[in-house]
Request: fold
Amino acid sequence: MAEVKPEEMVHHPPMDQLQGFEYCIDSNPSWGLCHLISSLKRLARVVQTLLFVTGIKTLLQTLFGTRLPIVIGGSYAYVVPVLSIIHDRSLTQIADGHTRFLQTMRAIQGALIVSSSIQIILGYSQLWAICSRFFSPLGMVPVVSLVGLGLFERGFPVIGSCVEIGLPMLILFVALSQYLKHVHVRHVPIMERFSMLVCIALVWVYAHILTASGAYKHTALVTQISCQTDRSNLISSALWISIPYPLQWGAPTFNADHAFGMMAAVMVSLIESTGAFKAAARLASATPPPAYVLSRGIGWQGIGTLLDGLFGTGTGSTVSIENVGLLGSTRIGSRRVIQISAGFMIFFSILGKFGALFASIPFTIFAAIYCVMFGIIAAVGLSFLQFTNMNSMRNLFIVGVSLFLGLSIPEYFSRYMTSSRSGPAHTKAEWFNNYINTIFASPPTVALIIAVLLDNTLDVRDAAKDRGMSWWARFRTYRGDSRNEEFYTLPFNLNRFFPPS
Reply:
């Protein structure tokens, strides 16, 4: 066998900033509709409120928070405490359905308002910045990866509920965004930038044809929910103009059990957002956010959760994972695009018919997109391995165990809750049950607990370079790298009044 010459060996040196992006974080493209589409959810008035508040939260985060190109939307982390409130005995005893809905929304609002203080305090006091000093590139690998991989149940399992719509969407999206990405119209890579819009429009029309032709009239209810467009007459029932406003469901009600349970979801969303911040910085061709910026972003996310409670979105705030993945798919990492999208969100949320039109899109279509977007996020997490020594058995152990348990433990909690309708923690203290069941049902949270614990206790003395800390060191402080000021400085010269600590 011929010996390979040193000059013929391929080397891929670690890169602080991901290359190959047509627009990076400071670029100013003049459009941003793609990110609007992937943020839309389902129910008419609640969707309008969620979309309206999402636009406000996104503007605040991109202007004054981390300043990364991210959308701040709802989070699956809030499912457990919200369901607990819905099934509260004091609420289920209300006979009238509309009254029960209003009382439930008010209870959720009160819990969100109280629990938002956790992120506000941790963020603006810089306590989360202090905590982040224990994070290394090695410890962040499983966290960022499981931000994407941990949502695998929202991918192909959902496509399987309506294969005739989900599978064509997945194949078409991969084909247009990857195989046809070099197709240019007037020197614009039209397919790479707008492949998601094109795919959603085509498959949506196809799904509407199936619905209008009566293809699902005699199918099971689950199939109808997964496949039909406008199955609840959302478009016809929506108002032309409807402006969401604070306390639209009434005055919030406050309950200690509800608030303590919701605090667990706030902690989970904080950890998930931390991983998403790291991924978004990489996909925006920016340097890793310094601890000060990370903490500032968490503080503004807390403000976002407070707005959720005041307006009544029914969920709390976190970074929209699918939109972070979209940065990689389109290679557009500009914060200006996200800010334009936020403006569209606010505008279209006021037009009830338009919001309902998008809300009628079958969720199966989004699930096909998630298969690509969440996969990109997982790959970004794995890319942090380039800064570590993966010839170290210590590092292999930490990454392997935290990845496996980060998937295995939440899967156990999920199956337990599916079979028995209650989590493994089922004591008489409902708030404690919600806390434990919410924390350990989140893959990134479990991965963070395990990875950070092992990384900071196992053979630490001689492992700094193997963990990637020598590379990470200059990005841990705001002035540690000259590029930080370019990416993360506040607008309107606000750094004079709020100097980085």
Observations:
- Residues 97-124 form the longest helix (28 residues).
- DSSP finds 24 helices and two strands in the chain.
- The beta strands are 72-73, 318-319.
- The CA atoms of residues 123 and 424 lie 31 Å apart.
